[in-house]
């Protein structure tokens, strides 16, 4: 019998992934783990939403589950409602992107909470691992209003499209009640929260020249 062996790595919430053969951890003659086997597992975890691979040299692969942005937003909205706190919408940027462009949006009562929510997500941790500095900017109500026919860009993925419907009632917490349906360029339609999208400048619009 041979296969991957997964076990909790202490109380940190991380998991250790190793390769086992004949009931024992497999190593090469120099005592190193089977790198080819671990690289396969590393690629699978990196391609799976909700998992993050820890960088650095280890005797086994270290991974841990992290919430997606949507899951973090749901948890944050539920906590805010329970505590009666008012929240603002924040756009999170980092130094590796052009000025004024965000890579995620969160709802939080202040900038410290916005940073904490961003760093609790897989995307936020990957940005931090890459050595980028995060910034947070409070959005005004007008920044979040979308209109039918408007050209928009999805904040997290960079997808562009045209708004087809607004004020779509969505299931879930308070943060999901205001939505839009967007015809994504060369793709199917996508319904999401309006705060997930931002206006697309003509100079950045791949369809503008068509």
Summarize the structure.
The protein is an alpha+beta fold and 210 residues long.
Largest β sheet strand count, sense and barrel closure: 5 strands, antiparallel
Q: What value does the average pLDDT take?
A: 77
Percent strand: 25-35%
User: What string, H for helix and E for strand, traces the elements in order?
Assistant: EEEHEEHEEHHEEEEEE
Radius of gyration, in angstroms, nearest whole number: 21 Å
Rough outline = elongated
Q: What does this 3D model show about the protein?
A:
- This protein has 210 residues and is an alpha+beta fold.
- It is 21% helix and 32% strand.
- The chain contains 4 helices and 13 strands.
- It has helices at residues 35-47, 69-83, 111-119, 122-129, and strands at residues 2-8, 15-21, 24-25, 51-53, 61-65, 88-94, 104-108, 134-138, 151-154, 160-168, 179-184, 189-193, 197-199.
- Strands 1, 2, 3, 4 and 5 form a 5-stranded antiparallel sheet that branches. A 5-stranded antiparallel sheet has the order 12-11-10-9-13, with no helix packed on it. Strands 7-6-8 form a 3-stranded antiparallel sheet.
- Strand 1 and strand 2 form a beta hairpin.
- It starts with a strand and ends in an 11-residue tail after the last strand.
- The model has no long low-confidence stretch (mean pLDDT 77).
Q: Key features?
A:
210 residues; alpha+beta; 5-stranded antiparallel sheet; 13 strands
Give me the secondary-structure topology.
Elements: E1 2-8, E2 15-21, E3 24-25, H1 35-47, E4 51-53, E5 61-65, H2 69-83, E6 88-94, E7 104-108, H3 111-119, H4 122-129, E8 134-138, E9 151-154, E10 160-168, E11 179-184, E12 189-193, E13 197-199
């Amino acid at each position: 019998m041979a296969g991957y062996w997964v076990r909790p790595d202490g109380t940190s919430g991380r998991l250790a992934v190793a390769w086992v053969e004949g009931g024992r951890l497999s190593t090469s003659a120099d005592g190193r783990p089977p790198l080819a086997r671990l690289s396969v597992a590393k690629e699978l975890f990196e391609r799976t939403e909700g998992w993050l691979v820890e960088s650095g040299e280890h005797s086994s692969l270290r991974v841990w589950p992290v919430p997606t942005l949507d899951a973090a937003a749901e948890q944050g909205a539920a906590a805010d409602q329970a505590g009666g706190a008012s929240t603002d919408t924040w756009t999170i940027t980092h130094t590796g992107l052009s000025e004024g462009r965000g890579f995620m949006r969160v709802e939080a009562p202040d900038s410290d909470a916005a940073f904490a929510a961003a760093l609790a997500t897989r995307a936020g941790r990957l940005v931090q691992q890459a050595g980028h500095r995060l910034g947070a900017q409070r959005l005004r109500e007008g920044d979040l209003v979308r209109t039918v026919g408007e050209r928009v860009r999805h904040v997290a993925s960079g997808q562009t499209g045209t708004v087809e419907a607004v004020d779509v009632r969505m299931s879930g917490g308070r943060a999901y009640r205001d939505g839009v349906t967007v015809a994504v360029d060369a793709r199917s339609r996508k319904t999401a929260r309006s705060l997930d999208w931002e206006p697309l400048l003509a100079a950045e619009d791949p369809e503008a020249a068509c």
